[in-house]
Amino acid sequence: MLAGKHIVLGITGGIAAYKAATLVRLLVKAGAEVQVVMTPNARQFITPVTLSTLSGKPVISEFFTANTGQWNSHVDLGLWADAMIVAPATASTIAKMATGVADNMLVTTYLSAKAPVFVAPAMDLDMMRHPSTVRNLELLRSYGNHIIEPAAGELASHLVGKGRMEEPENIVRVINDFFEQSAQLAGKRVLITAGPTVEKIDPVRFISNFSSGKMGFALADECARRGAQVTLVTGPVAINARQPGVERIDVVSADDMCKAVARHMADAQVVILCAAVADYKVAVMSEKKIKREKDEAPVLQLVKNPDIARMVGEQKRPGQVTVGFALETDNEEVNALGKMERKKLDMIVLNSLRDKGAGFQTHTNRVTIYHRNGDVIAGECKAKTEVAADIVEEIVKMLK
Ligand code: C5P
Q1: pLDDT tens digits, residue range 122-147?
Q2: What mean pLDDT comes out for the span 8-34?
Q3: How far apart are alpha carbons 221 and 58 in whole angstroms?
Q4: Ligand 1 center to 310 CA (angstroms)
Q5: How far apart are alpha carbons 181 and 342 in whole angstroms?
Q6: Can you give the three-state secondary structure of 217-264, one letter per residue?
Q7: Residues 235, 196: contact at Cβ < 8 Å?
Q8: Which of 294-298, 302-306, 365-369 has the lowest average pLDDT?
Q9: What's the DSSP call for residue 40?
Q10: What mean pLDDT do residues 186-204 have?
Q11: How would you classify residue 166: left for phi > 0, otherwise alpha for psi between -120 and 50, otherwise beta?
């Protein structure tokens, strides 16, 4: 998968920089063209001569080449790249990338890069677990970068803990898998619902829930990253999809969401129902703000909203894959399996509000995936982006 790919390898100033030579070697052996960009400090740890020889290209570390005055265009480099890897990534470079401190060629190239970016941190264990590093890595993840987690073991300081840069062989495997995955859903259309729905009571008040849309948007991004054309029907949320290839349709109420799904479902090979649809709406929305009555509180008459997943199940055509979600507070498995059955889903993703780090608003989730064929996959608590990758992996298997 790496043959002919353009890789910008950013090297920063840490002891693990010695492993960058092996990384260049492996990438070149796999057929990639590698352009090394070093921070000035990285040159203290490994010589540019080694890296330019292995990559077959002059190493860039300054904005200008001193003897010719030639400008090294970070913009061109950012556009040339099919992927950028920062390995090793020090706490300082991670902080600069997180906050946009563009004071060297590596960070300016990063800011100009349109391609996926992989960051392999390497530092002492205390630096690694410092709240600022944790937060900066979280920021990098939230921008869509891929963090290649460091391993635990003996560090350069002789302390033992998490902070060793991932081995070059594994970094190459991650990049290779990434390119492999990017074609998995090529030519497929995926329809996703996300976020809450909002059911108006009057022009001011509404019935809704705490859904942030993060899980549905992570799924949309993951499907698009794997080459799918994604239609994302979302209730009101404060986030955006990061990947190009996601067509977003904004809706407010369950009725609107239902109409949008009905319009798009026939074209989709995969339908993922991730939205937290309000089960009820008021029978009649008041056109004017309901006034505070002197004596009695108003009684709201509620009626059922359409069950979009059920409609999708009923209209499902052969070969179409449908996936639902169940957010439960009790009797989790029984409820989830019942929903899979009633809504004729091929797969249901269960999350329980009883699990720490799962459910609404959080960046993380812990899910169990139930297949119609009886397979069950219980996951760990991880970033919603990683949970999305696990779910999409199962969908890809079903499509095969
Ligand atoms: O609300 P409930 O727990 O039944 O949701 C289970 C699944 O059904 C979810 O995938 C949800 O997106 C979907 N659903 C829907 N329309 C509804 C209610 C739920 O599509 N009105």
Answers
A1: 999 999 999 999 999 999 988 889 99
A2: 97
A3: 35
A4: 8
A5: 32
A6: HHHHHHHHHCCCEEEEEECCCCCCCCCCCEEEEECCCHHHHHHHHHHH
A7: yes
A8: 294-298
A9: G
A10: 97
A11: beta
Query: What is the residue whose two structure tokens read 């056109």?
Result: 287
User: Residue 69 C-alpha to ligand 1 middle, in angstroms?
Assistant: 62
Given a contact cutoff of 8 angstroms between Cβ atoms, the answer to whether 349 and 369 are in contact is yes
Q: Are strands 229-234 and 246-250 parallel, antiparallel or unpaired?
A: parallel
Q: How far apart are CA 19 and CA 157, in angstroms?
A: 17
Across residues 89-114, what is the average pLDDT?
96
Assign 354 a pLDDT band (cuts: 50, 70, 90). Answer: confident
Task: Determine the atom of ligand 1 nearest the C-alpha atom of 311.
Answer: 20
H or E element that contains 99: helix 91-99
Q: What is the pLDDT of residue 214?
A: 93
Ligand 1, pocket-test mutation among 273, 305, 347, 352, most atoms within 8 A of CB: 273
* Mean pLDDT of the residues in the chain: 94
Which numbered atom of ligand 1 lies nearest the CA of 276? 12
Question: DSSP letters of 267-291?
Answer: G-SEEEE--B--SEEESS--SSPPP
Where helices occur in 101-230 by DSSP H, the ranges are: 105-112, 125-129, 131-142, 168-181, 214-225
Tokens of 232: 């994302």
Give 178: exposed, middle or buried? Use CB within 10 Å, 0-12, 13-18, 19+.
middle
Alpha carbon separation from 398 to 34, 49, 111 (Å, rounded): 36, 49, 37
- What is the Cα–Cα distance from 358 to 102, expressed in whole angstroms? 36
Q: Of 41, 203, 147, give the one whose Cα is nearest residue 389.
A: 147
Among 41, 72, 209, 335, the one annotated catalytic: 209
Q: Give CA separation, 193 vs 109, 218, 283, 370, in Å.
A: 35, 12, 24, 19
- Name which of 104, 100, 99, 108 is nearest 81 in CA terms: 108
Angle at the Cα of 107 from the Cα atoms of 73 and 27, rounded to 5 degrees: 80
Rg (CA), the chain: 25
Residue with CA at minimum distance from ligand 1 atom 3? 326
Task: Name the phi and psi angles at 194, rounded to 5.
Answer: -150, 165
